[in-house]
Amino acid sequence: MRREVYDPRRSPPKRVPKPDALAVLAEANKDSVDPSLFYDSEEKKRKDREEAEERQRKTELRRKKDRLKQREQNPKDEWVRKYRQQDVFDEVDDEKKEHVRYFCEEMHDEGGKRQYIAADPVDFWRGYSQIPVEKRHFYELMRENTPCHLYFDLECSRVANPEVDEARGDVLINHLVDLVREELMHTDEIDATNFDVSEHVIELDSTSETKFSRHIVVRLPDGQMFENNAQCQHFVQKLWRRVESRRDEDERCRALFLKKDTESEDATEPLIDMGVYTRNRVFRLYLSNKYSSGESAPKPRLETTERQRFWKTSKDGEKGKKETFMRSLASLCLDLSPKFIAFEGVTHQSVLRSKEFRGYCTGSYLSPTAAAFNGNAGCPCPRTAAFVCEDFNHWSAHDGAAVRSWTAFPEYGVLTLNLFGNRFCENVERAHKSNNVMFIVDFRESAYYQRCHDPDCRGTRGPWRDLSEDVLDESHALIEMLYEPPTLDDDDEEDVARVPTFDEMDEEDVRAAAAAAL
Ligand SMILES: [Zn+2]
C-alpha cells in the first residue's frame, strides 16, 4: 500500500470532519442547556463595549476639562503668535484651526514692535482682559477674503473744527447712521427690514483734545455679513457717492464734510476714513490705545460712548465688557446661520493671489524721470507700458494714454496698468466720461487686453491683442522682482505718510504728484 504523501502542489490535505462542537454540546446536555446562555454572552459583550466606551468618554471629558482649566489659567498659551503676519496665516491654514480671529499687538515692552496673533475670540478675551490696561495696544486684523460687518473709522481735527465736541459728535454719528440706514434700504443685496440702531450699532470713542475719533460697527440684521472687506468698501463708497451728490440739499450730508486743518477754508474732508478697507487691515480694539513711547503722553483708549451704555448693546461689569468686546469685533459672526453679502464683480483689485508689487508712474510713461514718488518703485516694464499706450491710442483712434499706476504679479508674468488720458472703452465703443480703463499684460500669452473701471462694464474684457516682439524680454524684469522684493508692509502707521491706493487717488492727485516730481 502506497503511503499518501502530502504534496502542496497537488491538493490541500484532507480535513477530517469534526463533529460540530455546539451540536455535541447540545446533544450531551439535551435537557439542561438554556439557549439564553448564548444571548447572555452577547449581552455581556455589549456591556463590556459600552463600559469601555464610557471609560473613554470620561477620560476625554477629563482631558477636555484639564485643557479648559489650563486655558483658563494661561489663555495666551492658546494664541498663535508670530512677528510676521503671513506666518500666522500659514499656521492657521496648515493646522486647519477653526473659529480663530486675527489680532495684532504693538508690544508695550518692545517699543511698540508688532506681533500678529490668531486666537479663538473667547481665549483672546480671557488673555486680553488680564493684560494691565496701560499695556493694551491691540488691533483686530481683517484677514483678506474673510467675512466682516460694516465698519467705519470716523475722525476729524478738533483744532480745525472746534465745534465738534461730544454733543456735536453724537449728532454727526446720528446723521451718518441715518444715511447708512437709507443706503441699506437702497441696496438690493441687503435686507434691512429689521435694522434697529439700538441693537445693531456699536459705537466706540477715542477722542482726544486735538482729534475727534470714533469707531462704528454696524451688525446687519438677520446674520447678514459682507463676504469680505472689499464688499464693505463697495458699500461705503456707494454711500459716500450719495452723500456727496446730496451735499447741497441735505443738511445731514453737508455735516459730514469737515475742515482738514486750520489752513482749510472750506469743509471738504470726509468724516469717514475711506482708507480702512484695504487687505489685511488692522482696526484698533475696544479698550486699547495706540502705543506711544515712554516720554509722550498715553494716547486715548477706545471706550464705549456715554450714550452707548444706555443702548442694548452694552451692559455693566466684566460680563458687559466681554459682550461689548465680542460685538465690537468687525470680523466675528455671532449668528448661527450667517448670510454673506457680495456685490457682483467686486474683489480686491485682482483675482491673482500671489506676491504682488505696485507703484505709481509720474505723469507720462515717456518721461525719463517716470520713476517714483511716495517711495514707490518705478514700473518694471516701461517699454511694455509705452507700447500698450501707443497701441491703444492707435486702435482706439484717440490719444493721450498714459499709465498712472501699475501692479505686477511676477509669479504669473502679469502686469496690470491703470491708465488715464485716454478713456476709450471697447465694451461701450466710446470714451467714458469719468471712469478710466486698465490693461492686463500677460507675458505668458505675449498679449494684453482691456478692462474697464466703469460700473457698467464690470466683468467685461476686451479681446487679446499681441504685444510687440521688442518688449517681450521685459518679462525677465518681472521675474527679477521676486528676488529683490521692495518692502510692502502696508501697516497703518498714522504717523508715517500712508501711500494711497489706486482707488483713493483721483486724476488731479496723480497730476499734482507728477508735476511735483518732475
Ligand atoms: Zn467701459
Overview of the molecule:
Helix content is 30%, strand content 19%. It is an alpha+beta fold. Among the domains are: 145-313 and 324-346; 361-517, no CATH class. A 6-stranded antiparallel β-sheet has the order 14-15-16-19-20-21, with helices on one face. It has a 5-stranded antiparallel β-sheet with strand order 1-3-2-4-11. Strand 6 and strand 7 (211-218) form a beta hairpin. The longest helix has 38 residues, at 36-73. The termini are far apart. Mean pLDDT is 80; it is low at 349-354, 362-377, 484-505 and 513-518.
Please bin the fraction of helical residues. Answer: 25-40%
What's the mean pLDDT score?
80
Hetero ligands: zinc ion
Structural class estimated from helices and strands: alpha+beta
Spans with pLDDT under 50 lasting ≥5 residues?
349-354, 362-377, 484-505, 513-518
Q: Report the count of strand segments.
A: 21
Q: What would you call the shape?
A: globular
